[in-house]
Design goal:
Blueprint lengths: L20 H26 L1 H11 L5 H34 L3 H21 L6 H21 L2 H12 L3
Helix pairs in contact: 1-3, 1-5, 2-3, 4-5
C-alpha cells in the first residue's frame, strides 16, 4: 500500500465557519455604500449648476474665474475622495466578512470620520442632492456599524482571531 511521505510542517487548512447574519448584513451595507459612493461621483458632475449657485450664494463677491476655480476644486476633491471611499468600502467589506477584527475598528473610525465630514458639509457650499446622498451614505454606514458591533458579530471576530490563519 502506497502512502505519500508527509511534506513540510504545513497543517491542512481548517474549514472556516460562515459569517453570522449580522456580519453578512454589514457586508451588504458596505457594498451598498461602495455603490452609492460611486453614484455620488457621477451625481457631482450632473449637479454642477447647483454647485455653482451654492458657491455664488456663499461667496457673492467672487468673480467668474474664482467661481470656476472653486467648482473645479470641489469637483476634483469629490472625485478623489469618492474613489478613495469606494475602495475603502470594498476593503472593509472583504476584511470584515473574513473576520479580521482590526477591520471592525477601522470601519468604526472611518464611520466617525464620515460623520464629521457630513456635519462639516453643512457649512460648505454644496448641491442639495449631494447632501441628500451624503446622508444616505451615512445611514448605510450606521447600519453597517450597528451590525458589526452586535453580540454575534463579536463572537465571530473572537472565534476568527483565535483560529489559525
Amino acid at each position: 500500500m502506497y502512502q505519500p511521505y508527509p511534506s513540510g510542517g504545513q497543517e491542512p487548512a481548517l474549514p472556516r465557519s460562515a459569517p453570522p447574519r449580522s456580519i453578512q448584513t454589514a457586508v451588504k451595507f458596505m457594498y451598498g455604500g461602495a455603490a452609492l459612493s460611486a453614484v455620488e461621483i457621477l451625481i457631482g458632475f450632473t449637479t454642477i449648476g447647483s454647485l455653482r449657485s451654492a458657491i455664488k450664494k456663499q461667496y457673492p463677491n467672487y468673480t467668474a474665474t474664482q467661481i470656476h476655480g472653486a467648482e473645479v476644486a470641489v469637483l476634483g476633491a469629490a472625485v478623489v475622495v469618492g474613489l478613495l471611499a469606494v475602495g475603502l468600502w470594498i476593503l472593509m467589506a472583504r476584511a470584515n466578512g473574513a473576520g479580521r477584527s482590526w477591520a471592525r475598528i477601522v470601519a468604526s473610525v472611518l464611520f466617525g470620520l464620515n460623520s464629521l465630514d457630513l456635519v462639516s458639509g453643512l457649512v460648505r457650499p454644496h448641491a442639495s442632492v449631494a447632501l441628500a446622498l451624503g446622508i444616505l451614505v451615512w445611514l448605510i454606514g450606521l447600519g453597517a456599524i450597528v451590525s458589526l458591533w452586535q453580540r454575534e458579530s463579536s463572537a465571530y471576530f473572537q472565534a476568527m482571531s483565535a483560529g489559525p490563519r
